[in-house]
Prior knowledge:
The complex is a heterodimer. Chain A is mostly beta strands. In chain A, strands 3, 4, 5, 6, 7 and 8 form a 6-stranded mixed β-sheet that branches. In chain A, β7 and β8 form a beta hairpin. In chain A, α1 packs across α3. Chain A is globular, with a radius of gyration of 23 Å. Chain B is an alpha+beta fold. Chain B is 24% helix and 17% strand. The two termini of chain B are 20 Å apart. The interface between A and B is medium-sized, with 39 and 22 residues.
Amino acid sequence: MFRKIIIALLCLSFTSVAQAVLKIDITEGFEGALPIAVIPFQWNGSAKIANADVSAIIMSDLARSGKFSPVAEKDLIARPQKLADVHYKTWRIAGMDHIVIGSVDKQSDGSYQVEFRLIDILKARQVLGYSFKATDKTLRAVAHQISDYIFTQITGLPGAFSTRIAYVTLKRDKSVYKSRLQVSDTDGYSPQTLLTSDEPIMSPAWSPDGSQLAYVSFESGQAEIFTHNIRTGVRKSRARFKGLNGSPAWSPDGKKLSMTLSKDGNPDIYILDLASGKLQRVTNHWSIDTEAVWMPDGKSLIYTSSRSGKPQLYKQSITGKSKPERLTYEGGYNASASISPDGKFVAYVHGEGNIYRIAVLELATRSSRILTDGPLDESPEYAPNNSMILFASQEKRQAVLAAVSVDGRQKQRLAFTDGEVREPSWAAVRY
Amino acid sequence: MKKLFFILVLALSISACGERIKPDTETGGDTTSAENNGSATAGGINEGSGIGGVALEGGKLVSYEKNAIADPNNVLSEKVVYFAFDSKSVDDDYVELVKHHGKYLSFNPDASVRLEGHADERGTREYNVALAEKRAQSVKQLMLYEGASNDQISVISYGEEKPVAFGHDEESMSLNRRVEIVYQ
């Protein structure tokens, strides 16, 4: 059978017009979120560019984080453009902690000068201010960068708005099967297709430096693990053994990939050294061992194993010499771990009966908490700043991406306009 | 080995209403030749296989002739094995069917199959790929017991990626938990 494979060797930097494919709605939450007013930036020398409305992008980023509650534009009590215009007392009475002001000035060479200031109302002074140079192609990126600065200044956490997410989209019915591996900004803009196939694409995983994706593609008629440089489009086959080739996960130093192979009889976990091609076996059990992810120290893995009869999470050193330590006991289905970047928590799929929800386990205390409502939630993925968990969900029979804050209070839906969207992976840094 | 192996009219184990029918008569598996389709005659296949000499009303022909897989009246026309939730074992209702395919392979060394494992949408994608591979391996193992050889059988697992039923109800999901036997 001839399989049509179209590999899009697109450079991501080629992005011309930002175009939203994912639409993001905040569906729940705001309790405890910090009030902030983002004053619409004044555009000088140019009309506002509709899909690069810098202040609107900042506002939407901050709202999506779940940690901020930006004032709607129509409810703004004042619109100061310069620091000297800020009337602190008025904002204080309005209960505002911070305001953001700024401007976009078109330069004679066609570029833009973007300025912003973050003002602390209680301290009655500017606490942060930067000026950036941008082109019409990089205005959105500058806006996300400003969001990161503001987020970090106020919360003390690194921002993650400038990074990227990868996900798989799928159009399928009885006659059509078309899967796509896509990369977009974290707000769903600037989607780029890395791979199109009429066979499944699964399990995208970002390299720690954000330059590559590892994933599983069935394009050759069997499962095969690839790594794919998102800028050059160059990709390499990393595993094409008989049987399963699945669950690729990067070691924190980016030099190794853990993966599930069944070449020796059963699905077991192996580690591939990318430079030498040397393969090391970690588990050896007749049951299913799969979905390994790395602890941030690179010394151990957490994986799903059915060795107790049902899928449960286990932790084991990468040498494979120590005995695996079972982490989950509640419920008959605990799988697909994602470890928080600080190594303190594990998000996973918790199934009870026919309901599959996202739960979080605190490794130090072994206490766990269910964050979502189900019924078919899967593929949890920690945001690089520990603040949110992306996951795949079913809503009104439609596969969507959703996000939940780690305290479970804020929930968002990232709806895909055409077909199903699944398996999000969030890059730690923008390459 | 290009003999004809005509066995009995038998017995797909599933009736119209989906319930298993127990054979009510068993005849010995000896060597009456059976050129005439439709009569219950045995053709001396692997001794002790347990499938010889069973006739059923409304049953299908059991023959391991080379072109038997193309015959809609042959038991080999059934090519899908269904599974219980989170189970990798071949259900009793499908053991006979898998054995027929295993025997067909053993009598036709030139034939080969691809076993495609599938799971329903519940649970995680990669776990389902592993589970569906276990399912396909269970089917393969049974076929090997019947004399099929390792290099006649390839296995691929699609997990939950390729459902045949798109509903989210139990009936759809039970149709999706399957191994498809695809002759190459």
